[in-house]
Amino acid sequence: MIDYAPFEAWFVTGSQHLYGPEALERVRANSEAVVAGLNGSGVLPVRVVFKAVVTTPEEISAALREADAAPNCLGVIAWMHTFSPGKMWIGGLSRLRRPLCHLHTQTGKGIPWSTIDMDFMNLNQSAHGGREFGYICTRLGIERKVVVGHWKEPTVQERVATWLRAAAAWHDSRGMRIARIGDNMRQVAVTEGDKVEAELRFGVAVNGYGLGDVVAHVEAVRKAAVDALCEEYAASYTMMESLLPGGARHASLRDAARIELGLRYFLEEGGFHAFTDTFENLHGLRQLPGIAAQRLMADGYGFGAEGDWKTAALVRSMKVMAHGLPGGTSFMEDYTYHLDSGGQAVLGAHMLEICPTIAADTPSCEVHPLGIGGREDPVRLVFDAAAGPAVKATLVDLGDRFRMVVNEVDVVEPLAALPRLPVARALWKPLPDLETAAAAWIHAGGSHHTGFSLALTAEHFEDFAAMAGVECLFIDGDTELRRFRRELRWGDGRRD
Question: pTM for this one?
Fold first, then answer.
């Protein structure tokens, strides 16, 4: 469902005719070498294509206009090998709609002390040209990522790769379709929002569908397809014995499989990238989609519970950014706290719908009572999340703008067994500590629903939010609450 192969980023090198044709040939050769090195690093998820050395306003405008028109171009990487006068870039940059990355690098790593002369200086003046380019971008209000360092350094390649992943998610967002099956959970505020503004800002189209639209697909599922999916469950997970063929609850497994297949057919037919449901609207289904939502997320779909389309969109974008990276990404909810002074932590979970890509071990397929929803006991995958550094993020509608909030966390193993909590869960310690992180999150208006990832870093969200033109706040090891609240007031246009 997520495929980077068709896409590419265009590499454009800035220079001018002042240095003569021989110098420009060297600029081109060096640019091609940098592009080949980036592509050969094995770090970049998307192929970089060298397009041109641009030396006039007309060439610059033509190259950037072509990038905007190319459906497979995710963005432009610009390098000022020499000095490229900023006024030449005004026409092209002022119309550019693709994401921009300014790679501030040079061909060689070091200064050739014994041989350096003015010819070398004229040719290798990225330190000079990059500042001119930076000025004109700032003057024009162009949002971009600036990556500084030698192009062979792994840290530089990784930062370019992060930007490419964010650009892929931004490209996906511009055509994202979300099915809101049913409506919002009744009386809940934070999961609501302005769907028109979301489409203007992110390109995300959110439309409502009656549960009957899904039920019709569920009822049309053939027995042979249910048989095959139940066999797939048994081969993929540790099965509760009662769910196996001949077991007392095998019918529940078949119902769950039928729901998954019907929901999958509905999403595929509509070309959807994400979906929501709500346990308050289950008419026509025997059980709340549990394992269905979990497995659809594992395949790349975004998901939000209780009608939370903003989180569904965010999870889908996170899935795109994380594609191919180790670790997993899921819908998540802050559920309950461990407030022991010896090690405060958050237990994250949901009723059922946590993606198995974050599991530490093979999930167990089980059926248990849910207690809400008024339907039969739902089938779900039960597991603990893998330990390690992670991020959780939320997207909230403040009325006049969207805000993204990102918290870095450390996922830890549960402090004890949880034999009576048959859901997927994650235990984490938020940075810098629970008191500061929770207070900052609440002051920022962050939702209880989040996107959660063991694969992504805060930088992925920073790049994505910049492309979307969305305010993004970070809660990390350096967060101090008084300073954080001051930043909130500044963002709201208020003075101290």
Answer: 0.96
